[in-house]
Amino acid sequence: MLQGLYKVEFHTVHGSRYGVMYAYDGRMLGGNSAFAFIGRYDESGEEIRAEVSTVRHHDDPSYQPLFKTDKITLKLRGWQEEDHFYFEGGSGQMPGVPFKSVMTPISDEAAPPFVPPGVGGIANGLYSIHIRMLDGVDGGNTGVMVLHDGRIRGGDGFFDYIGSYSSANGKWKGEIVNHEHTPSKGERPVFGGYEVGIGFSGTYNDKGAEAEATALAGKRSIRFKAMMKKFADW
Q1: Dihedral sign from CA coordinates of 167, 168, 169, 173
Q2: Would 111 be classed as within a structural domain?
Q3: Each residue of 180-196: pLDDT tens digit?
Q4: Contacts of 135 by beta carbon, 8 Å cutoff, 6+ apart
Q5: Contact 125, 145 (CB under 8 A)
Q6: What are the beta bridge partners of residue 127?
Q7: Strand-pair partners of 100
Q8: Same domain, yes or no: 84 and 154
Q9: Higher local confidence (pLDDT), 50 or 63
Q10: Measuring CA to CA, which residue among 147, 170, 38, 48 is closest to residue 102?
Q11: CATH of the domain at 58
């Protein structure tokens, strides 16, 4: 069964990219440092049929799309081999450009316990997340985060995020474990090579959320601010 958070590696003739995908009950939501992935899947027997669209959430031109366009819809056929899921297909918008991907499960054993939020809590869905370091520390990061009934699942091209949250009356708080699923090769020097525990608190509305957080990377304590924008409902 296709369910949980996955590292996804995808390929076309234009190159390769990495990201994360959260699959649950027929929905597929994920992304990486520049793009959000929004789709659905259906499991019939041993075959999986999926349709996934992309939308850019980060305007940095150094992040180029594999299909040379920011918005595209892929129709895919998938199958399982051991604990991996393989997909292949393409897009009618870019005929003749085959697409292949592999999804590798990310363990949620380190995930903190969660309690489903009550009425009026922060809405389930896919959010972009843009991080800015505080206290004079250079750098930041961008990625995506899925909020689902008290669970946090997300990441980017190098890291995955697994956590939990509680929310009520426009305020929320929680904790996240940040893990490197693909070597960042020095592109994210603050968190690279560490499994980082993060605690946060902030506010939310129907369009997004913000939070201030403290991360413990090795013996180093780092504060940062995160801004989130909602891209898709659950």
Answers
A1: negative
A2: no
A3: 998 876 555 556 666 88
A4: 222, 223
A5: no
A6: 145, 230
A7: 11, 88
A8: no
A9: 50
A10: 48
A11: 2.40.128.380
Beta bridge partners of 120: none
Name the token pair of 196: 């980082």
Together in a domain, 224 and 132: yes
Q: If you ran DSSP here, which 8-state letter would residue 61 be given?
A: T
What is the extent of the structural domain holding 96? 4-105
**Per-residue three-class SS string for 2-56:** CCEEEEEEEEECCEEEEEEEEEECCEEEEECCCEEEEEEEEEECCEEEEEEEEEE
DSSP string of 145-199? EEEETTEEEEE-SSEEEEEEEEEETTEEEEEEEEEESS--TTSSTTTTT--EEEE
204: in domain: yes
Angle, CA 112 vertex, CA 207 and CA 107 arms, to 5°? 95
Do residues 122 and 202 touch, judged by C-beta distance below 8 A? Answer: no
Q: Tell me the residue type at 234.
A: W
Q: Does residue 130 form part of some domain?
A: yes
**Closest of 134, 166, 142, 111 to residue 231, by C-alpha:** 142
* 199-218 mean pLDDT: 93
Asked whether residue 117 is domain-assigned, the answer is: no
pTM of the model: 0.92
